[in-house]
Write a structure and sequence with these properties.
By secondary structure, the protein is α+β, with helices and mostly antiparallel strands. About 15% of the residues lie in helices and about 35% in strands. It has one domain: Thrombin, subunit H, CATH 2.40.10.
Length: about 280
């Protein structure tokens, strides 16, 4: 009897891993800070959106709460890039970010009614690729279309008290439930409350939905993840934090980017983040 080796079975087809907005948002979220002296600094959070210019050319836009920049007295801030090392480690690599020109004029575009600011920047290639497509920003129909309501869970990213998830400078992920009603129309309800602990440094961070979080029974499932808004404030009562965050709707990010599009500033004056 002749023995014969059985050929190995062909490898099973591996389905591509779907893009995860949670990891995507982590990769697109950065720390913003400005040292005041050797022992103190102003700290906030920002995130990156891929928002092509009106002529279709690529553009990376930094989104944050307007007060994050407004409370920074100097013209130079820092943006916390992260660099992947060959051995799998990550390095925190902050770079200068010019936020005001030589005469103190802000280089960011602020929404006229909401605590939302945007600014075109030049990002390292890895961060430019990580920027979230503008189409993932909720608009003024999103909440009604998907019947978003109180009790629904949303995720948030930030740097509470300037702390990071690790020494590489990744943001800290939190989870909370929508705690206010009504949510729409947003012209009457431009902000909503989220039930989670908020600290200085969280301001400007993204609040977003993914299929990983809970929704009320019977609610339709959105056909893609989305950014619901920007964290802008902590609710306080009696001088104490109430573990509630105030979120400005993402529609106002869209409107701020539209104002940026209308700006007559030269692109080179706004593309100011060092790689």
């Amino acid at each position: 009897m002749i023995s014969q080796d059985v050929p190995p079975a062909p490898p099973a087809a591996v389905a591509p891993v779907p893009w995860d907005l949670t990891v995507g948002m982590i990769n697109a979220t950065v720390q913003l800070d400005q040292p005041l002296n050797e022992s103190s600094r102003k700290v906030g959070t920002g995130f990156l959106i891929s928002a092509p210019r009106p002529d279709g050319t690529p553009r990376v836009v930094l989104v944050t709460a307007a007060h994050v920049f407004n409370v920074m007295p100097n013209g130079e801030a820092r943006i916390g890039w992260r660099t992947a090392e060959a051995d799998g480690a990550w390095k925190f690599s902050p770079a200068n970010l010019t936020i005001r020109d030589f005469d103190g004029t802000p280089l960011w575009t602020q929404h006229p009614e909401r605590d939302v600011a945007v600014m075109e920047i030049t990002a390292p290639d890895a961060f430019a690729r990580a920027a979230i497509p503008m189409g993932w920003l909720a608009d003024d129909t999103t909440f009604d279309r998907w019947r978003v309501g109180p009790g629904d869970e949303l995720m948030a990213l930030g740097y509470p008290h300037g702390l990071s998830a690790n020494k590489a400078g990744f943001p800290i992920l939190r989870l909370g439930r929508i705690s206010s009603w009504p949510l729409t129309p947003i012209r009457h309800f431009p902000i909503f409350l989220l039930d989670f602990a908020v600290s200085q440094g969280n301001s400007g961070g993204p609040v977003f939905w993914t299929p990983a979080v809970d929704r009320l029974p019977g609610a339709p499932t959105p056909d893609h993840p989305y950014i619901a808004g920007v964290l802008v404030q902590e609710v306080q009562g009696g001088g104490e934090g109430l573990e509630l965050g105030v979120v400005a709707h993402a529609q106002y990010v869209r409107e701020a980017i539209a104002l940026l599009d209308q700006s007559t500033a030269a692109p080179e004056t706004q593309s100011n983040a060092a790689q």
